[in-house]
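User: For documentation purposes, I need each entry recorded in a consistent format: the amino acid sequence on its own, followed directly by the corresponding C-alpha coordinates. There are two entries in this batch. Please keep commentary to a minimum and don't merge the entries.

Assistant: Recorded as requested. Entry 1:
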Amino acid sequence: MRAVADLIDAINGRVGRTVAWLTLAMVLVQMGVVIGRYVFGIGSIKVQESITYMHAFVFMLAAAWTLRADGHVRVDILYREAAPRHKALVNLFGSIFFVIPISALIIWYSWNYVGQSWAVLERSHESSGLPLVFVLKTVIPVFAVQMGLQAVSMAIHSLLALGGDEDELAQLRHVTEVAEL
Protein backbone atom coordinates (compact mmCIF):
# COMPACT_ATOMS: atom_id res chain seq x y z
CA MET A 1 0.00 0.00 0.00
CA ARG A 2 2.78 2.41 0.85
CA ALA A 3 4.28 1.96 -2.62
CA VAL A 4 0.99 3.06 -4.23
CA ALA A 5 0.76 6.12 -1.95
CA ASP A 6 4.39 7.00 -2.59
CA LEU A 7 3.89 6.71 -6.36
CA ILE A 8 0.84 9.00 -6.24
CA ASP A 9 2.74 11.47 -4.04
CA ALA A 10 5.71 11.41 -6.41
CA ILE A 11 3.60 11.99 -9.53
CA ASN A 12 1.60 14.82 -7.97
CA GLY A 13 4.79 16.29 -6.52
CA ARG A 14 6.51 16.28 -9.89
CA VAL A 15 3.49 17.84 -11.62
CA GLY A 16 3.12 20.44 -8.87
CA ARG A 17 6.78 21.43 -8.86
CA THR A 18 6.78 21.64 -12.66
CA VAL A 19 3.70 23.84 -13.00
CA ALA A 20 4.86 25.98 -10.07
CA TRP A 21 7.43 27.42 -12.47
CA LEU A 22 4.53 28.91 -14.39
CA THR A 23 4.15 31.44 -11.56
CA LEU A 24 7.49 32.94 -12.57
CA ALA A 25 6.42 32.87 -16.21
CA MET A 26 3.14 34.59 -15.29
CA VAL A 27 4.98 37.40 -13.53
CA LEU A 28 7.38 37.88 -16.42
CA VAL A 29 4.66 37.76 -19.08
CA GLN A 30 2.45 40.14 -17.09
CA MET A 31 5.38 42.50 -16.72
CA GLY A 32 5.92 42.28 -20.48
CA VAL A 33 2.23 43.06 -21.11
CA VAL A 34 2.37 46.13 -18.87
CA ILE A 35 5.62 47.40 -20.39
CA GLY A 36 4.36 46.70 -23.90
CA ARG A 37 1.11 48.54 -23.32
CA TYR A 38 2.26 51.54 -21.33
CA VAL A 39 5.77 52.06 -22.71
CA PHE A 40 5.44 50.96 -26.33
CA GLY A 41 1.68 51.21 -26.85
CA ILE A 42 1.33 47.61 -28.09
CA GLY A 43 -0.67 44.67 -26.81
CA SER A 44 -1.55 41.10 -27.61
CA ILE A 45 -4.73 39.27 -26.69
CA LYS A 46 -2.93 35.93 -27.05
CA VAL A 47 -0.29 36.99 -24.55
CA GLN A 48 -2.93 38.29 -22.15
CA GLU A 49 -4.92 35.06 -22.44
CA SER A 50 -1.75 33.04 -21.85
CA ILE A 51 -1.58 34.56 -18.37
CA THR A 52 -5.07 33.22 -17.63
CA TYR A 53 -4.07 29.79 -18.95
CA MET A 54 -0.91 29.72 -16.83
CA HIS A 55 -2.88 30.76 -13.75
CA ALA A 56 -5.42 28.00 -14.36
CA PHE A 57 -2.68 25.41 -14.87
CA VAL A 58 -0.92 26.41 -11.64
CA PHE A 59 -4.10 26.53 -9.60
CA MET A 60 -5.59 23.29 -10.91
CA LEU A 61 -2.54 21.10 -11.51
CA ALA A 62 -0.69 21.98 -8.30
CA ALA A 63 -3.74 21.51 -6.06
CA ALA A 64 -3.03 17.83 -5.31
CA TRP A 65 0.60 18.61 -4.50
CA THR A 66 -0.62 21.32 -2.14
CA LEU A 67 -3.06 18.86 -0.55
CA ARG A 68 -0.21 16.41 0.10
CA ALA A 69 1.86 19.19 1.68
CA ASP A 70 -1.15 20.11 3.87
CA GLY A 71 -1.06 23.56 2.33
CA HIS A 72 -4.77 24.11 1.77
CA VAL A 73 -6.74 26.35 4.09
CA ARG A 74 -8.14 24.31 6.95
CA VAL A 75 -10.36 25.34 9.82
CA ASP A 76 -8.13 23.62 12.30
CA ILE A 77 -9.60 24.59 15.65
CA LEU A 78 -9.28 20.99 16.79
CA TYR A 79 -6.94 19.52 14.18
CA ARG A 80 -3.77 21.50 14.89
CA GLU A 81 -3.50 20.46 18.54
CA ALA A 82 -4.85 16.94 18.03
CA ALA A 83 -2.87 13.77 18.53
CA PRO A 84 -1.44 12.19 15.37
CA ARG A 85 -3.96 9.33 15.48
CA HIS A 86 -6.84 11.81 15.62
CA LYS A 87 -5.36 13.66 12.64
CA ALA A 88 -5.11 10.37 10.77
CA LEU A 89 -8.80 9.70 11.45
CA VAL A 90 -9.77 13.18 10.24
CA ASN A 91 -7.67 12.76 7.10
CA LEU A 92 -9.10 9.31 6.43
CA PHE A 93 -12.68 10.49 6.91
CA GLY A 94 -12.13 13.62 4.82
CA SER A 95 -10.51 11.66 2.01
CA ILE A 96 -13.16 8.97 1.82
CA PHE A 97 -16.28 11.05 2.42
CA PHE A 98 -15.36 14.41 0.91
CA VAL A 99 -12.42 14.56 -1.49
CA ILE A 100 -12.99 11.30 -3.39
CA PRO A 101 -16.76 11.80 -3.91
CA ILE A 102 -16.35 15.45 -4.90
CA SER A 103 -13.55 14.51 -7.30
CA ALA A 104 -15.80 11.86 -8.83
CA LEU A 105 -18.62 14.40 -9.22
CA ILE A 106 -16.30 16.87 -10.91
CA ILE A 107 -15.16 14.20 -13.36
CA TRP A 108 -18.77 13.13 -14.01
CA TYR A 109 -20.11 16.63 -14.61
CA SER A 110 -17.11 17.94 -16.55
CA TRP A 111 -16.79 14.98 -18.90
CA ASN A 112 -19.40 16.10 -21.49
CA TYR A 113 -18.43 19.75 -21.06
CA VAL A 114 -14.81 18.97 -21.92
CA GLY A 115 -15.83 16.46 -24.61
CA GLN A 116 -17.98 19.04 -26.38
CA SER A 117 -15.11 21.49 -26.29
CA TRP A 118 -12.79 18.90 -27.86
CA ALA A 119 -15.41 17.97 -30.46
CA VAL A 120 -15.32 21.49 -31.90
CA LEU A 121 -11.72 22.27 -30.90
CA GLU A 122 -13.07 25.27 -29.04
CA ARG A 123 -11.21 28.52 -29.54
CA SER A 124 -11.14 31.84 -27.77
CA HIS A 125 -14.07 34.15 -28.30
CA GLU A 126 -11.56 36.80 -29.31
CA SER A 127 -10.58 36.56 -32.97
CA SER A 128 -6.89 36.90 -32.15
CA GLY A 129 -7.06 34.87 -28.94
CA LEU A 130 -5.58 31.48 -28.20
CA PRO A 131 -7.20 28.59 -30.10
CA LEU A 132 -6.77 26.25 -27.13
CA VAL A 133 -9.85 26.61 -24.93
CA PHE A 134 -10.40 22.85 -25.22
CA VAL A 135 -6.97 22.26 -23.65
CA LEU A 136 -7.76 24.68 -20.85
CA LYS A 137 -11.03 22.90 -20.11
CA THR A 138 -9.25 19.53 -20.07
CA VAL A 139 -7.50 20.64 -16.91
CA ILE A 140 -10.80 20.33 -15.00
CA PRO A 141 -11.06 16.51 -15.06
CA VAL A 142 -7.26 16.19 -14.77
CA PHE A 143 -7.48 18.23 -11.57
CA ALA A 144 -10.24 15.97 -10.26
CA VAL A 145 -8.28 12.80 -11.06
CA GLN A 146 -5.18 14.17 -9.33
CA MET A 147 -7.18 15.20 -6.26
CA GLY A 148 -8.96 11.85 -6.13
CA LEU A 149 -5.69 9.98 -6.35
CA GLN A 150 -4.12 12.21 -3.72
CA ALA A 151 -7.10 11.46 -1.46
CA VAL A 152 -6.44 7.74 -1.97
CA SER A 153 -2.83 8.38 -0.99
CA MET A 154 -3.94 10.32 2.09
CA ALA A 155 -6.26 7.48 3.06
CA ILE A 156 -3.41 4.98 2.74
CA HIS A 157 -1.08 7.18 4.81
CA SER A 158 -3.85 7.56 7.41
CA LEU A 159 -4.45 3.82 7.59
CA LEU A 160 -0.74 3.23 8.04
CA ALA A 161 -0.63 5.82 10.83
CA LEU A 162 -3.65 4.25 12.51
CA GLY A 163 -1.87 0.91 12.26
CA GLY A 164 1.02 2.36 14.26
CA ASP A 165 3.50 3.19 11.49
CA GLU A 166 5.99 5.49 13.23
CA ASP A 167 7.03 7.29 10.01
CA GLU A 168 3.43 8.23 9.29
CA LEU A 169 2.79 9.30 12.88
CA ALA A 170 5.94 11.43 12.80
CA GLN A 171 4.72 13.06 9.58
CA LEU A 172 1.44 13.99 11.29
CA ARG A 173 3.36 15.41 14.27
CA HIS A 174 5.43 17.47 11.83
CA VAL A 175 2.27 19.08 10.41
CA THR A 176 1.63 20.68 13.80
CA GLU A 177 5.22 21.95 14.06
CA VAL A 178 5.07 23.52 10.60
CA ALA A 179 1.70 25.15 11.37
CA GLU A 180 3.18 26.79 14.48
CA LEU A 181 6.04 28.40 12.57
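Entry 2:
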Amino acid sequence: MSAVSEGKIAFGPSMQVERFSMPNGLRILVQRDTSAPVVCLQSWVRVGSRFEKEGKTGICHLFEHLMFGETETMPHGAFDRALEEAGAETNAGTYLDWTYYTQSLPKEALELSLRLEAERLTRLVLREPQVASEREVVANERRLRVDDDIDGTANELLYKTAFEKHGYGIPTIGWMQDIEGFTPEDCVAFYKTYYAPNNVTLVVSGDVEIPQLLELVDRHYGSLPSSVIPPEEQRPEPPQKGERRVVIQKPTATHKLAIGYKAPALADPDHAALSVLAEILFGGRGSRIHRALIQKAEVASDIRGYVGTFKDPSLFDIWLGARGEHTGEDLLRLFDEQVAKVIADGVTEAELDKAKARLELSALQPLETVSGRAETLGLYDTVLGNPAAVFDKLAEERRVTQADVLRVARKYLDREARTIIAVEPDGSADEEDEAGEDEGEGE
Protein backbone atom coordinates (compact mmCIF):
# COMPACT_ATOMS: atom_id res chain seq x y z
CA MET A 1 0.00 0.00 0.00
CA SER A 2 1.55 3.30 -1.09
CA ALA A 3 -0.65 5.82 0.77
CA VAL A 4 1.21 7.72 3.47
CA SER A 5 -0.56 8.92 6.60
CA GLU A 6 -0.46 12.64 7.29
CA GLY A 7 -2.13 12.26 10.66
CA LYS A 8 -5.52 12.84 12.20
CA ILE A 9 -7.26 16.08 13.05
CA ALA A 10 -10.35 16.76 15.14
CA PHE A 11 -13.53 17.51 13.24
CA GLY A 12 -15.73 19.00 15.89
CA PRO A 13 -16.03 17.64 19.43
CA SER A 14 -16.68 14.00 18.53
CA MET A 15 -15.41 13.31 15.00
CA GLN A 16 -12.03 13.18 13.33
CA VAL A 17 -10.54 13.27 9.86
CA GLU A 18 -7.64 11.11 8.75
CA ARG A 19 -5.41 12.44 6.00
CA PHE A 20 -3.31 10.50 3.51
CA SER A 21 -1.27 11.21 0.39
CA MET A 22 -0.13 9.11 -2.56
CA PRO A 23 3.26 9.30 -4.32
CA ASN A 24 1.55 10.78 -7.39
CA GLY A 25 0.21 13.68 -5.32
CA LEU A 26 -3.34 12.49 -4.72
CA ARG A 27 -4.64 13.56 -1.32
CA ILE A 28 -7.25 11.59 0.63
CA LEU A 29 -9.45 12.80 3.50
CA VAL A 30 -11.48 10.21 5.41
CA GLN A 31 -14.20 10.88 7.95
CA ARG A 32 -15.41 7.49 9.18
CA ASP A 33 -19.00 7.04 10.37
CA THR A 34 -20.44 3.54 10.76
CA SER A 35 -23.91 4.60 11.90
CA ALA A 36 -25.42 3.75 8.50
CA PRO A 37 -24.12 1.58 5.60
CA VAL A 38 -23.65 4.51 3.24
CA VAL A 39 -20.68 6.44 1.87
CA CYS A 40 -20.16 9.77 0.14
CA LEU A 41 -17.19 9.99 -2.22
CA GLN A 42 -16.19 13.38 -3.57
CA SER A 43 -13.38 14.45 -5.89
CA TRP A 44 -12.32 18.06 -5.40
CA VAL A 45 -10.31 19.45 -8.31
CA ARG A 46 -8.35 22.56 -7.43
CA VAL A 47 -9.39 24.62 -10.43
CA GLY A 48 -12.27 27.05 -10.90
CA SER A 49 -13.26 29.92 -13.15
CA ARG A 50 -10.83 32.30 -11.42
CA PHE A 51 -8.02 30.39 -13.19
CA GLU A 52 -9.42 30.98 -16.67
CA LYS A 53 -8.04 33.37 -19.25
CA GLU A 54 -9.60 35.75 -21.71
CA GLY A 55 -11.00 33.86 -24.66
CA LYS A 56 -11.20 30.56 -22.76
CA THR A 57 -13.80 31.34 -20.10
CA GLY A 58 -16.21 28.61 -19.05
CA ILE A 59 -13.91 25.66 -19.65
CA CYS A 60 -14.04 24.56 -15.99
CA HIS A 61 -17.82 24.39 -16.16
CA LEU A 62 -17.71 22.67 -19.55
CA PHE A 63 -15.61 19.95 -17.96
CA GLU A 64 -18.21 19.44 -15.26
CA HIS A 65 -20.41 18.22 -18.13
CA LEU A 66 -17.73 16.39 -20.11
CA MET A 67 -16.73 14.33 -17.09
CA PHE A 68 -20.04 12.43 -17.28
CA GLY A 69 -19.37 11.41 -20.87
CA GLU A 70 -17.47 8.77 -22.77
CA THR A 71 -14.19 7.29 -21.55
CA GLU A 72 -11.79 4.88 -23.20
CA THR A 73 -13.65 1.90 -21.74
CA MET A 74 -17.18 3.26 -21.25
CA PRO A 75 -19.61 4.61 -23.85
CA HIS A 76 -21.58 7.77 -23.23
CA GLY A 77 -24.13 7.25 -20.43
CA ALA A 78 -22.45 4.18 -18.98
CA PHE A 79 -20.97 6.07 -16.01
CA ASP A 80 -24.34 7.25 -14.70
CA ARG A 81 -26.08 4.02 -15.56
CA ALA A 82 -23.57 1.84 -13.69
CA LEU A 83 -23.79 3.96 -10.56
CA GLU A 84 -27.57 4.29 -10.66
CA GLU A 85 -27.90 0.51 -10.94
CA ALA A 86 -25.69 0.23 -7.85
CA GLY A 87 -27.99 2.59 -5.92
CA ALA A 88 -25.76 5.66 -6.14
CA GLU A 89 -26.64 9.32 -6.78
CA THR A 90 -24.18 11.58 -8.61
CA ASN A 91 -23.78 15.30 -9.06
CA ALA A 92 -21.13 17.96 -9.59
CA GLY A 93 -20.48 21.67 -9.15
CA THR A 94 -18.15 24.37 -10.42
CA TYR A 95 -17.47 27.79 -8.95
CA LEU A 96 -14.82 30.46 -8.67
CA ASP A 97 -12.21 28.49 -6.69
CA TRP A 98 -13.03 24.83 -7.32
CA THR A 99 -14.75 22.02 -9.20
CA TYR A 100 -16.10 18.98 -7.41
CA TYR A 101 -17.80 15.67 -8.20
CA THR A 102 -19.92 13.82 -5.66
CA GLN A 103 -21.39 10.36 -5.32
CA SER A 104 -23.64 9.14 -2.50
CA LEU A 105 -23.81 5.35 -2.49
CA PRO A 106 -24.30 2.14 -0.52
CA LYS A 107 -21.04 1.02 1.07
CA GLU A 108 -20.96 -2.05 -1.19
CA ALA A 109 -20.61 0.19 -4.26
CA LEU A 110 -17.45 1.94 -3.07
CA GLU A 111 -15.04 -0.03 -5.26
CA LEU A 112 -17.19 0.56 -8.34
CA SER A 113 -17.31 4.24 -7.54
CA LEU A 114 -13.54 4.54 -7.11
CA ARG A 115 -12.88 2.60 -10.31
CA LEU A 116 -15.18 4.84 -12.34
CA GLU A 117 -13.82 8.04 -10.78
CA ALA A 118 -10.23 7.03 -11.56
CA GLU A 119 -11.26 6.06 -15.09
CA ARG A 120 -12.74 9.43 -15.94
CA LEU A 121 -9.92 11.34 -14.25
CA THR A 122 -7.37 10.35 -16.91
CA ARG A 123 -9.14 8.43 -19.71
CA LEU A 124 -11.86 10.79 -20.88
CA VAL A 125 -12.60 10.84 -24.64
CA LEU A 126 -12.41 14.41 -25.93
CA ARG A 127 -12.98 14.21 -29.67
CA GLU A 128 -15.16 16.61 -31.66
CA PRO A 129 -18.50 14.74 -31.25
CA GLN A 130 -18.15 14.64 -27.46
CA VAL A 131 -17.03 18.27 -27.15
CA ALA A 132 -19.61 19.58 -29.63
CA SER A 133 -22.46 17.86 -27.78
CA GLU A 134 -21.56 19.34 -24.39
CA ARG A 135 -20.80 22.75 -25.91
CA GLU A 136 -24.41 22.93 -27.04
CA VAL A 137 -25.71 21.77 -23.65
CA VAL A 138 -23.71 24.49 -21.88
CA ALA A 139 -24.71 27.15 -24.43
CA ASN A 140 -28.37 26.32 -23.81
CA GLU A 141 -27.76 26.42 -20.06
CA ARG A 142 -26.28 29.88 -20.41
CA ARG A 143 -29.28 31.07 -22.42
CA LEU A 144 -31.66 29.73 -19.77
CA ARG A 145 -29.83 30.77 -16.60
CA VAL A 146 -28.17 34.02 -17.69
CA ASP A 147 -29.22 35.51 -21.02
CA ASP A 148 -32.96 34.89 -20.47
CA ASP A 149 -32.89 35.25 -16.68
CA ILE A 150 -32.94 38.70 -15.11
CA ASP A 151 -31.32 37.66 -11.84
CA GLY A 152 -28.59 35.76 -13.72
CA THR A 153 -27.87 38.68 -16.03
CA ALA A 154 -27.66 41.19 -13.18
CA ASN A 155 -25.47 38.95 -11.02
CA GLU A 156 -23.05 38.30 -13.88
CA LEU A 157 -22.82 42.02 -14.64
CA LEU A 158 -22.31 42.81 -10.95
CA TYR A 159 -19.17 40.68 -10.72
CA LYS A 160 -17.90 41.76 -14.14
CA THR A 161 -18.22 45.42 -13.13
CA ALA A 162 -16.86 45.01 -9.60
CA PHE A 163 -13.76 43.03 -10.67
CA GLU A 164 -11.78 44.68 -13.44
CA LYS A 165 -8.60 42.61 -12.99
CA HIS A 166 -9.25 39.61 -10.75
CA GLY A 167 -10.61 36.33 -12.11
CA TYR A 168 -13.71 36.63 -9.94
CA GLY A 169 -15.06 38.90 -12.68
CA ILE A 170 -15.20 35.89 -15.02
CA PRO A 171 -18.61 34.19 -15.07
CA THR A 172 -18.28 30.54 -14.11
CA ILE A 173 -20.51 29.48 -16.98
CA GLY A 174 -18.31 31.45 -19.39
CA TRP A 175 -19.01 34.03 -22.10
CA MET A 176 -21.09 32.67 -24.97
CA GLN A 177 -18.48 33.30 -27.66
CA ASP A 178 -15.93 31.34 -25.64
CA ILE A 179 -18.32 28.45 -25.00
CA GLU A 180 -19.10 28.16 -28.71
CA GLY A 181 -15.43 28.34 -29.65
CA PHE A 182 -13.97 25.51 -27.57
CA THR A 183 -12.13 22.87 -29.59
CA PRO A 184 -11.08 19.34 -28.65
CA GLU A 185 -7.51 20.63 -28.53
CA ASP A 186 -8.50 23.24 -25.92
CA CYS A 187 -10.17 20.56 -23.85
CA VAL A 188 -7.30 18.07 -24.07
CA ALA A 189 -4.79 20.72 -22.98
CA PHE A 190 -6.91 21.74 -20.00
CA TYR A 191 -7.63 18.13 -19.04
CA LYS A 192 -4.02 17.03 -19.12
CA THR A 193 -3.00 20.01 -17.01
CA TYR A 194 -5.60 20.15 -14.24
CA TYR A 195 -7.24 16.72 -14.17
CA ALA A 196 -4.41 14.80 -12.59
CA PRO A 197 -4.04 13.14 -9.17
CA ASN A 198 -1.74 15.86 -7.84
CA ASN A 199 -4.53 18.41 -8.34
CA VAL A 200 -7.28 16.33 -6.73
CA THR A 201 -8.40 15.57 -3.19
CA LEU A 202 -10.59 12.54 -2.57
CA VAL A 203 -12.99 13.11 0.32
CA VAL A 204 -14.67 10.03 1.79
CA SER A 205 -17.28 10.21 4.53
CA GLY A 206 -19.25 7.27 5.86
CA ASP A 207 -19.07 3.57 6.58
CA VAL A 208 -15.62 2.56 5.36
CA GLU A 209 -12.78 0.44 6.63
CA ILE A 210 -9.77 2.65 6.12
CA PRO A 211 -7.22 -0.07 5.21
CA GLN A 212 -9.61 -1.45 2.61
CA LEU A 213 -10.30 2.04 1.27
CA LEU A 214 -6.60 2.82 0.88
CA GLU A 215 -6.02 -0.49 -0.87
CA LEU A 216 -8.76 0.34 -3.37
CA VAL A 217 -7.41 3.85 -3.92
CA ASP A 218 -3.95 2.43 -4.51
CA ARG A 219 -5.33 -0.11 -6.97
CA HIS A 220 -7.26 2.39 -9.06
CA TYR A 221 -5.27 5.61 -8.63
CA GLY A 222 -1.74 4.47 -7.80
CA SER A 223 -0.54 4.19 -11.40
CA LEU A 224 -2.07 7.45 -12.62
CA PRO A 225 0.57 10.00 -13.65
CA SER A 226 0.82 13.42 -12.06
CA SER A 227 1.02 16.59 -14.14
CA VAL A 228 2.84 19.88 -13.98
CA ILE A 229 0.37 22.39 -12.55
CA PRO A 230 1.24 25.89 -13.77
CA PRO A 231 1.33 28.64 -11.15
CA GLU A 232 -1.81 30.71 -11.18
CA GLU A 233 -1.46 34.10 -12.83
CA GLN A 234 -1.83 36.63 -10.04
CA ARG A 235 -4.35 39.35 -10.90
CA PRO A 236 -4.94 41.32 -7.70
CA GLU A 237 -7.88 43.66 -7.82
CA PRO A 238 -6.84 47.30 -7.26
CA PRO A 239 -8.74 49.32 -4.65
CA GLN A 240 -12.03 50.65 -5.96
CA LYS A 241 -12.21 54.42 -5.91
CA GLY A 242 -15.72 55.54 -6.56
CA GLU A 243 -19.09 53.91 -6.85
CA ARG A 244 -19.72 52.01 -10.08
CA ARG A 245 -23.29 52.01 -11.33
CA VAL A 246 -24.77 50.37 -14.41
CA VAL A 247 -28.41 50.62 -15.49
CA ILE A 248 -29.95 47.91 -17.68
CA GLN A 249 -33.46 47.57 -19.03
CA LYS A 250 -35.15 44.19 -19.02
CA PRO A 251 -38.63 42.71 -19.59
CA THR A 252 -39.66 42.92 -15.95
CA ALA A 253 -42.59 44.62 -14.25
CA THR A 254 -40.56 45.71 -11.22
CA HIS A 255 -37.26 47.41 -10.47
CA LYS A 256 -34.39 45.41 -9.00
CA LEU A 257 -30.95 46.19 -7.56
CA ALA A 258 -27.84 44.04 -7.36
CA ILE A 259 -25.32 45.64 -4.99
CA GLY A 260 -21.79 44.51 -4.22
CA TYR A 261 -19.52 45.84 -1.48
CA LYS A 262 -15.94 44.59 -1.49
CA ALA A 263 -15.63 41.87 1.16
CA PRO A 264 -12.70 40.05 2.79
CA ALA A 265 -11.48 36.57 1.87
CA LEU A 266 -12.73 33.60 3.88
CA ALA A 267 -9.42 33.42 5.77
CA ASP A 268 -9.50 37.08 6.76
CA PRO A 269 -10.23 37.75 10.47
CA ASP A 270 -12.87 40.30 9.39
CA HIS A 271 -14.90 37.67 7.52
CA ALA A 272 -16.64 36.36 10.63
CA ALA A 273 -17.77 39.79 11.80
CA LEU A 274 -19.03 40.78 8.35
CA SER A 275 -20.95 37.48 8.12
CA VAL A 276 -22.63 38.28 11.43
CA LEU A 277 -23.52 41.75 10.14
CA ALA A 278 -24.96 40.26 6.94
CA GLU A 279 -27.13 37.96 9.04
CA ILE A 280 -28.37 40.89 11.15
CA LEU A 281 -29.27 42.80 8.01
CA PHE A 282 -30.71 39.99 5.87
CA GLY A 283 -31.21 36.85 7.98
CA GLY A 284 -34.89 36.04 8.04
CA ARG A 285 -38.03 38.02 8.68
CA GLY A 286 -36.68 39.58 11.84
CA SER A 287 -33.67 41.10 10.05
CA ARG A 288 -33.29 44.84 9.73
CA ILE A 289 -33.68 45.04 5.94
CA HIS A 290 -36.70 42.73 5.91
CA ARG A 291 -38.46 44.72 8.62
CA ALA A 292 -37.61 48.09 7.09
CA LEU A 293 -38.17 47.45 3.37
CA ILE A 294 -40.74 44.63 3.29
CA GLN A 295 -42.78 44.90 6.49
CA LYS A 296 -42.75 48.62 7.26
CA ALA A 297 -42.22 50.59 4.04
CA GLU A 298 -43.58 47.81 1.77
CA VAL A 299 -41.24 48.86 -1.04
CA ALA A 300 -39.55 45.47 -1.50
CA SER A 301 -40.77 41.96 -2.21
CA ASP A 302 -37.40 40.17 -2.27
CA ILE A 303 -34.18 40.68 -0.32
CA ARG A 304 -30.98 38.66 -0.09
CA GLY A 305 -27.51 39.26 1.28
CA TYR A 306 -24.46 37.00 1.21
CA VAL A 307 -20.77 37.38 2.06
CA GLY A 308 -18.65 35.34 -0.37
CA THR A 309 -16.78 32.36 1.08
CA PHE A 310 -13.86 32.49 -1.32
CA LYS A 311 -10.09 32.25 -1.31
CA ASP A 312 -9.56 35.88 -2.26
CA PRO A 313 -11.46 39.06 -1.37
CA SER A 314 -14.86 38.96 -3.05
CA LEU A 315 -18.23 40.66 -2.51
CA PHE A 316 -20.88 41.23 0.07
CA ASP A 317 -23.50 40.38 -2.55
CA ILE A 318 -26.94 41.98 -2.08
CA TRP A 319 -30.20 41.68 -4.03
CA LEU A 320 -33.23 43.93 -3.61
CA GLY A 321 -36.43 43.46 -5.61
CA ALA A 322 -39.02 46.24 -5.62
CA ARG A 323 -42.70 45.81 -4.94
CA GLY A 324 -45.29 47.27 -7.28
CA GLU A 325 -44.46 50.66 -8.71
CA HIS A 326 -41.57 51.42 -6.36
CA THR A 327 -38.26 52.22 -8.03
CA GLY A 328 -34.69 51.20 -7.52
CA GLU A 329 -34.05 54.62 -6.03
CA ASP A 330 -36.75 53.96 -3.42
CA LEU A 331 -35.03 50.70 -2.52
CA LEU A 332 -31.58 52.23 -2.39
CA ARG A 333 -32.65 55.20 -0.28
CA LEU A 334 -34.21 53.04 2.42
CA PHE A 335 -31.41 50.50 2.27
CA ASP A 336 -28.81 53.25 2.70
CA GLU A 337 -30.75 54.58 5.68
CA GLN A 338 -30.44 51.20 7.39
CA VAL A 339 -26.74 50.99 6.59
CA ALA A 340 -26.23 54.50 7.96
CA LYS A 341 -27.92 53.50 11.22
CA VAL A 342 -25.61 50.52 11.65
CA ILE A 343 -22.56 52.63 10.89
CA ALA A 344 -23.68 55.30 13.37
CA ASP A 345 -25.07 53.22 16.21
CA GLY A 346 -23.98 49.61 15.71
CA VAL A 347 -26.23 46.67 16.56
CA THR A 348 -27.85 45.35 19.72
CA GLU A 349 -26.70 42.44 21.82
CA ALA A 350 -29.97 40.63 21.04
CA GLU A 351 -29.38 41.00 17.31
CA LEU A 352 -25.85 39.75 17.74
CA ASP A 353 -26.94 36.65 19.65
CA LYS A 354 -29.69 35.80 17.16
CA ALA A 355 -27.36 36.18 14.18
CA LYS A 356 -24.73 33.95 15.75
CA ALA A 357 -27.33 31.27 16.48
CA ARG A 358 -28.59 31.31 12.89
CA LEU A 359 -25.06 31.11 11.48
CA GLU A 360 -24.23 28.23 13.78
CA LEU A 361 -27.32 26.33 12.71
CA SER A 362 -26.58 26.84 9.01
CA ALA A 363 -23.01 25.57 9.51
CA LEU A 364 -23.88 22.54 11.64
CA GLN A 365 -27.02 21.29 9.89
CA PRO A 366 -25.16 19.96 6.82
CA LEU A 367 -22.91 17.90 9.10
CA GLU A 368 -25.84 15.63 9.93
CA THR A 369 -25.32 13.72 6.65
CA VAL A 370 -22.28 12.04 5.13
CA SER A 371 -22.69 14.10 1.95
CA GLY A 372 -22.89 17.34 3.93
CA ARG A 373 -19.76 16.44 5.90
CA ALA A 374 -17.88 15.51 2.73
CA GLU A 375 -18.81 18.79 1.05
CA THR A 376 -17.81 20.81 4.11
CA LEU A 377 -14.47 19.00 4.34
CA GLY A 378 -13.76 19.48 0.65
CA LEU A 379 -14.71 23.15 0.58
CA TYR A 380 -12.63 24.20 3.57
CA ASP A 381 -9.70 22.04 2.53
CA THR A 382 -9.70 23.52 -0.98
CA VAL A 383 -10.20 27.15 0.01
CA LEU A 384 -8.34 27.32 3.34
CA GLY A 385 -6.10 24.23 3.31
CA ASN A 386 -7.75 22.98 6.51
CA PRO A 387 -10.64 20.49 6.16
CA ALA A 388 -11.84 21.13 9.71
CA ALA A 389 -11.83 24.92 9.43
CA VAL A 390 -15.62 25.14 9.60
CA PHE A 391 -15.26 24.79 13.37
CA ASP A 392 -12.58 27.48 13.45
CA LYS A 393 -14.97 29.79 11.58
CA LEU A 394 -17.74 28.99 14.08
CA ALA A 395 -15.41 29.85 16.95
CA GLU A 396 -14.54 33.15 15.27
CA GLU A 397 -18.22 34.00 14.81
CA ARG A 398 -18.97 33.18 18.45
CA ARG A 399 -16.27 35.65 19.52
CA VAL A 400 -17.66 38.53 17.43
CA THR A 401 -18.62 41.53 19.54
CA GLN A 402 -20.81 44.56 18.95
CA ALA A 403 -17.63 46.57 18.50
CA ASP A 404 -16.43 44.16 15.82
CA VAL A 405 -19.66 44.52 13.87
CA LEU A 406 -19.50 48.31 14.08
CA ARG A 407 -15.89 48.27 12.90
CA VAL A 408 -16.52 46.09 9.82
CA ALA A 409 -19.67 48.05 8.95
CA ARG A 410 -17.62 51.24 8.82
CA LYS A 411 -14.78 49.54 6.98
CA TYR A 412 -16.63 47.62 4.27
CA LEU A 413 -20.02 49.33 3.73
CA ASP A 414 -18.34 52.14 1.83
CA ARG A 415 -20.41 53.76 -0.92
CA GLU A 416 -17.23 54.75 -2.74
CA ALA A 417 -16.22 51.09 -3.06
CA ARG A 418 -19.51 49.54 -4.05
CA THR A 419 -21.01 48.47 -7.36
CA ILE A 420 -24.70 48.75 -8.25
CA ILE A 421 -26.54 47.14 -11.13
CA ALA A 422 -29.98 48.72 -11.48
CA VAL A 423 -32.56 46.73 -13.44
CA GLU A 424 -35.39 48.83 -14.86
CA PRO A 425 -38.53 47.68 -16.70
CA ASP A 426 -38.22 48.10 -20.48
CA GLY A 427 -41.99 48.42 -20.88
CA SER A 428 -42.53 45.02 -22.50
CA ALA A 429 -43.79 43.23 -19.36
CA ASP A 430 -47.17 44.19 -17.94
CA GLU A 431 -47.18 41.59 -15.22
CA GLU A 432 -44.55 39.51 -13.49
CA ASP A 433 -45.06 36.38 -11.47
CA GLU A 434 -43.00 36.71 -8.30
CA ALA A 435 -44.77 34.02 -6.31
CA GLY A 436 -42.70 32.81 -3.44
CA GLU A 437 -40.72 36.04 -3.23
CA ASP A 438 -43.29 38.39 -1.73
CA GLU A 439 -42.29 37.55 1.79
CA GLY A 440 -38.54 37.72 1.25
CA GLU A 441 -36.24 35.38 3.09
CA GLY A 442 -37.94 33.03 5.58
CA GLU A 443 -36.89 31.97 9.02
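Summary note for entry 2:
The longest strand covers residues 314-322.
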